[in-house]
Amino acid sequence: MDKKGKGIVDERLRVAKLSVFSNLLLVIGKLAVGWLIGSVSVISEGIHSGLDLVAALIAFFSVREASRPADDSHQFGHGKIENVAGTIEALLIFLAAIWIIYEAVEKLSHGGMAPEAGWGVLIMAISAGVNFYVSSRLMAVARKTDSVALEADALHLRTDVYTSLGVLVGLILLKLTGWWILDPLVAIGVALLIVKASWDLLQEAFMPLLDQRLPEEEESQIQERIQRHAEKYVNVHAIRTRRSGAERHIDMHMVFCKRTSIQETHEISDRVEAEIQEIFPKSTVLVHQEPCDERCGECQFGHKEGRQ
Prior knowledge:
- With 308 residues, this protein is mostly helical.
- The longest helix is centred in the first third of the chain and has 35 residues.
- InterPro entries: Cation_efflux (IPR002524), Cation_efflux_CTD (IPR027470), Cation_efflux_CTD_sf (IPR036837), Cation_efflux_TM (IPR058533), Cation_efflux_TMD_sf (IPR027469), CDF_Transporter (IPR050291).
- It is found in: Membrane.
- It is a multi-pass membrane protein.
């Protein structure tokens, strides 16, 4: 791995460690305050942050493992580890939401007293601020390094910002009105937001495991690079794309005039591959070269006759 590649890995690991550390502190703070004031909504947020901590640990280890180079057992690299990690995160978030709803319904069924809101408001405000900062750092590095695991962790924490603010507002209303029922109702609202977040994360992380093609805008960029050399080939077909973690795999069949030399077709293919790798640095591009068939007639290099 060159210095640039090592620097990218180090940056990803640093921000992943920051997520682990911040979530650990928030879990301790939320659970302690929730137990102290008897608030199911604050405790539910503590459980949510516990899942955030597990997710952050998964993201950290997946980023580290996905950065390993290809080997004999994994000849296409280890990039899909990030997608597996994101899928696990989504399932964990969903389970947390179910647990929160169960606890809130139990409190609604058996009644309760209004918790003391003061410390709860403080810990929720701290949580929202910390998670906003950490999620912003994670998303910036995720976009810079094209990391699925860090993006999933960032989206996860950004949802935690909104749920923390929801609990904060609920506690303030509870303090003003004294209505204990607001506490479990806010917890259920938090849980529903978590369910939505888990579904979004599941789609983002799981689909690449099925070798889904790249998004339309990315394929358009690839087509644009290929078309730059349209005067030097007959046609391009059988273009296939997929993603594996931060890596993209692109292959295609490029048809050349049968009078073009092997050296020329190889040089043109290399240029196409290099230009695609300019927009997607962590990509593997394979161009299969084919001669034109009899329909091409007497076309010469660069001649449009016979193009499909």
